[in-house]
Amino acid sequence: MTGDQSRAVWDRARAFQTTIADQGAMVTDADYLLQADTLLDLYGEDIRARAFTTQDPLRGEQMLRPDFTVPVVQAHMAHGAEPARYTYMGKVFRKQEEDESRPTEYVQVGYEVFDGTDPAAADADVFATILGLLSDVDVTAVTGDIGILRAAVMGLKTTERRRAALLRHLWRPRRFKSLLDRFSGVTDVPPSRTALLAQDDPMAGVGDVLGLRSRAEIAARIDVLREDAAAEPLSMAERELVDALLAVRETSPNALTALRDISVDLGSISEAVDGFSARLDALSARGVNVDTLAFEAAYGRMSMEYYDGFVFGFEAPAQFNLPPVATGGRYDALTTVLGNGVGVPAVGGVIRPAAVVALEGER
Amino acid sequence: MTLKLGVPSKGRLMQKTFDWFANRGVTLRKSGHDREYAGAVDGIDGVELVLLSAGEIPRELNAGRIQLGVTGSDLVREKLSNWDRRVVEVSKMGFGGADLIIAVPNAWVDVETLDDLDAVAAAFRANHGFRLRIATKYHRLVRDFLRENGVADYQLVDSQGATEGTIRNETAEAVADITSTGETLRANGLKILGDGMIHSSQATLFRGRRGGWTQEQRNTFKSLVAILDQA
């Protein structure tokens, strides 16, 4: 990036942050180097493909911050009091293993809201704030709600373990689908498992146990497999409802109608759909035209792994091959993980000023 | 400018590579003393032999310091991101075959598939408070494979040798390693997951990107390919 481009990006970033701060958000910051363990426990090994790792002789493995959300949440959980609104600005660092044209460091401006009094209003606040900052930029907003899918899974008439397995893979669509297929009897149980359970004593073949995973753990898993083998398959009707839910892709009012229809047969999502409806009202109250606002039930399942409720993105026109100009969402569960079991309802979003500047250059 | 051909500097891989080229009318040999890492090429002009560690050949190809290289297809995939945009397979050589697989203790009678491994990883993390450890030196290949297959709650621990022993030493619960016959795995009380084949590797002749090549190097490459194709 040339000096002029860099100046334009930082100027834009500062202007964005000033607007957010003027709305009452507290300016905050984060360290560049984060404890790798925290990120690895949160995102799993995949984060190594995205974050730069380095070594400190005393603190051990460190990562250059791949985002601000984690350190900002940590700081809030340790020292903050609700309600709180924060804004930050600075560079984040991402390895680019697939597309070499994407930058490995770029500026983000963020807005995070920790306020549980009215979740719909907090969602609308973050979305409307970013929409306002991008009002002159050629972007298209897309929204979704992982909370509706989560509620659907929690309401499935199957075993607790099966629901837990599906929830664990909410963000891995392929594994999620293969689990659904197996639980609904679309795919067969692996022959190795059938053979194991057919034995009089499946533990007979265990022999000497090597390593940390104990005989008791193996026996416990066999009990789990027995329970699973005895469970009724998930009904095709329920399976089809989940598929119908994931296929919803409409303007927000039409999506709401479609989800209401689904909730007649899948009562567990009613509350989450009410939340969606309340959010649309809150967005309208903030001056957002929800009649044309896109809603995709599956949005954010691939790339936004810690979001568990409202999700959104502002996409640049496809021909420019730019990453999303802004993204965000609700991450209540993340605060529980980082707050040692104590959670706070939280929602936030980030803008990439460089994408804004690049788009304006195209005009 | 000569065309530099990188070949593994020792052992069976070097000898088999020499044999493979010899069968096609190109003689590669170590020049001078047996311990010296200098080489000579007969049967074609303009090719220079460079003896290197097999593990360094991907990097040297990518950097353009050698134009051709013989190494395992596993090493190229492990060491170069987007390997197929950086190097091209000229010829699979049919030796040095080995499979990168995932193996777990025999005692795990409940684990035969990746699906099992994923479920066990979740339970292991809940019981032990840390993610199930898989020892390997093939970090990129293993990580990509497990992501592709939706396995979560694991961690990779680095093991540059005697990987099969890590489970006994309780520094890992599973391994991802190269095996040709599976004998070392069996001797260490391990079994291979049915759908845990990550990559089936063999010695392969690669070329680097041609962007910086001289006309002379291009011509030499053409003649070399013609000679190799005749056989």
Per-chain topology:
The complex is a heterodimer of chains A (363) and B (231).
Chain A: H1 3-22, E1 26-27, E2 33-35, H2 36-43, E3 53-56, E4 60-64, H3 69-79, E5 84-93, E6 105-114, H4 119-133, E7 140-145, H5 146-154, H6 160-168, H7 173-183, H8 191-198, H9 215-230, H10 236-246, E8 249-251, H11 252-265, H12 270-285, E9 294-296, E10 310-315, E11 326-330, H13 332-338, E12 346-351, H14 353-362
Parallel strand pairs in A: 1-5, 7-9
Antiparallel strand pairs in A: 2-4, 3-4, 5-6, 6-12, 7-10, 8-9, 10-11, 11-12
Chain B: E1 3-8, H1 11-22, E2 27-30, E3 39-42, E4 47-52, H2 57-63, E5 68-72, H3 73-79, H4 83-86, E6 87-92, E7 98-105, H5 114-128, E8 132-136, H6 139-148, E9 154-158, E10 174-179, H7 183-187, E11 190-201, E12 203-208, H8 215-230
Parallel strand pairs in B: 1-4, 1-5, 8-9, 8-10
Antiparallel strand pairs in B: 2-3, 5-12, 6-12, 7-10, 7-11
3D architecture notes:
The complex is a heterodimer of chains A (363) and B (231). Chain A has helices at 3-22, 36-43, 69-79, 119-133, 146-154, 160-168, 173-183, 191-198, 215-230, 236-246, 252-265, 270-285, 332-338, 353-362; strands at residues 26-27, 33-35, 53-56, 60-64, 84-93, 105-114, 140-145, 249-251, 294-296, 310-315, 326-330, 346-351. Chain A is of the alpha+beta class and 363 residues long. In chain A, the strands form two sheets. Chain A has a nine-stranded mixed sheet, sandwiched between helices. Chain A has a three-stranded antiparallel sheet with strand order 2-4-3. In chain A, helix 4 (119-133) crosses helix 12 and helix 6 packs antiparallel against helix 7. Chain A is globular and about 75 Å long. The model of chain A has no long low-confidence stretch (mean pLDDT 94). Chain B has helices at residues 11-22, 57-63, 73-79, 83-86, 114-128, 139-148, 183-187, 215-230, and strands at 3-8, 27-30, 39-42, 47-52, 68-72, 87-92, 98-105, 132-136, 154-158, 174-179, 190-201, 203-208. Chain B has a five-stranded mixed sheet. In chain B, strands 9-8-10-7-11 form a five-stranded mixed sheet. In chain B, strand 8, helix 6 and strand 9 form a beta-alpha-beta unit. Chains A and B meet through helix 7, helix 8 and helix 9 of A and helix 5, helix 6 and strand 9 of B.
